[in-house]
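User: I've been going back and forth on whether these two constructs are worth ordering. Before I decide, could you fold them both?

Assistant: Sure. I'll take them in the order you sent them. The first construct and its structure tokens:
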Amino acid sequence: MGEQPVRVLVCGDVEGRLSCLFSRVQAIQKKTGQFDLLLCVGEFFGATPEAEAEWQQYKTGAKKAPIHTYILGAASQETVKNFPNSDGSELAENITYLGRRGVFTGASGLQLAYVSGQEALQEPAPAHCFTSKDLSALVTSLTSSSKFRGVDILLTSQWPQGVWHYGNNPELNTKSCGSSSIASLADKLKPRYHFAALEGAHYERLPYRNHVVLQENAQHVSRFIALAAVNNAAKRKYLYAFNIIPMKNMDPTELVKQPPDVTESPYRRSAKDKTETQKPPFNAADEEEPVHQFFFDLSRKQGGASRGHGRKRPSDGDGRGQDGHHQGQPKQPRRHPQPTGPCWFCLASPQVEKHLVVSIGTHCYLALAKGPLTPRHVLILPIGHYQSVVELSSEVVEEMEKYKSALRDFYKSKGERCVLFERNYRSQHLQLQVVPVPLNHCTTEDIKEAFMVQAQEQNMELMEIPQHTDLKQIAPPGIPYFYVELDSGEKLFYRIQKNFPLQFGREVLASEAVLNIPTRADWKECKQSREEEEESCKQLRDDFQPYDFAWDD
């Protein structure tokens, strides 16, 4: 019984439309079975005479809520009168006011944290507002335990400010949306689900992680969901149903599983992007190495100063370099586009796995693929932060073409042809995958047919585009797409609609028709130890060096 999921309904601003809400709930329960509880965020009561009359029917017992309903407190001065005190109480049969702020733990073990009202902008705080002391008390009550991992559900009326960073954008003006204090609260409490309202919008953000990859142990992901008002004219979603097994009853490995579309935390941004004056718990700007410093470090790791001095641009400040700085003058790092937050693939980022780097040019770099399909499977990546090929500047495109040409020559010497593909979908930094295929395995036409057939099987139509057509002409920036380039120069393109299989490129190349290694289609099944990766990368770096234009002869 301990692992039985709790069935939960969550609603946005009710604004006094109780009969409309409960009719909808009854219809849902009739169709799908009984839910355990209904949680209401935002403004529950209405300020009109009609809303007041409707509430009186429930308050007097003439009508009864069909489900245990838990609500937040007033979000405006007009509705404060409906709440007798700030401590929480039963307002009518099956309708309970949770209170100003606190923690509610159900019999199942489900832990729910909540904060009523809006952030106070003045002292003393109005009755419908919360203060920083309220939030501090809530955080302390939970995080003081050494066993604290997060809460199952967080209920707030206001949105957390900046929750859309690194994720999908909501359909509203975000300039004045949300509370920075609620954002800080969500960051500290790590809710598995966070619900809010008040903005009249429905928004389901992509899940975000609560740990820094490669620096912290894996933790559960968080999901933020904002709901619209009941019976709104635009017919935006105002009810959300889900099943949840309480965190305390879950197997830890199940709890920390990461979905494929997970993003960085929207709250772990650099200090200059924060509206709070206090230093955030994670400051990307403090941890980021300048680009030229990373080049210097890498040259030492790649075999000492003699190889480092072979670079076509200065890496350790020795003499006068191409950037025009004399010895003794402070060097300025090359200005590449920077991300607004953590990125696994920006070369200057602390998140990048530097031991996988094979070669560094002026605008691009080459890295061994994580969990490679074959030992010589590499990525071409821009040093600066670009999301896709169509966003690249001309000098980056030019150097990327040089890397393509060098790799074709390199693979040809090994009796291989190369296939390149890019997935501009659910990724924040361009990764051009380059996979070698032995000439004796199959022809270019076989590879092309494999892509076409598998696309058709998944109801996708790959379009062949003319050899010299610029991708920018058919895929404007911001449009998600999948793109393949064959060694013949032929190009295949698919404009992604939705639910694109993230491993599609690998699945085709791993199939029986091409490499015949179907068990390696998922990169997670091909992971190597750090030592194995370092050895593989060293071997590839040495093999590729004769073709690497980034080193002097």
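The second construct, handled the same way:
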Amino acid sequence: MGVRAGVVVCITSFLLGSLFTHWIADSLTLWKSPVTDEHLWTAALYYSILTKGPVQILYVLFAIIILGGTTIFWSFNDLEAGNLMFDGGSIFLYGVAVIMYAYSVIPNLMDKFTAIPPHHMKDAFPRLLRIPTLDLASNHLVCSVALTGVLILQAGRWWAELADGDDEEGYLPEKVEDS
């Protein structure tokens, strides 16, 4: 369990860190009230820069995601009660994050932010970009919460197995002395 759980925790932590890098844009649209046009332009510019990055970064990200999913499924395959509960929940949450990112975040980025209109920060933000910008931030939040759930479930699994190990020590046969 140790190596597989370590790989799952490291990969999930890496993916969370990748999502946290979007905080510069997401915090402006999710946590600052009221959301101003300047905040939306900053977020849209950030997302636009992301779409212009080298495609190899996406390939590495996909490889890491596949490795994480494979490791969770491999651990789930042990068919122990703890694995079924904790790894089953981890698979669900990991899958939610991957599906959300693959079917909502990436298409939204590629469709709406590959070319944003020329602007000044004080210009009115286009209505056609407002909802996609807010959706990206909320989707990043959903993915972050799901991946945090994976980490919590893996920690819970470790704690449960540690507690099971402590209980088993009480069942060791005692040495019987002959008198």
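Notes on the second construct follow. The mean pLDDT is 86. The first helix runs from residue 2 to 20.
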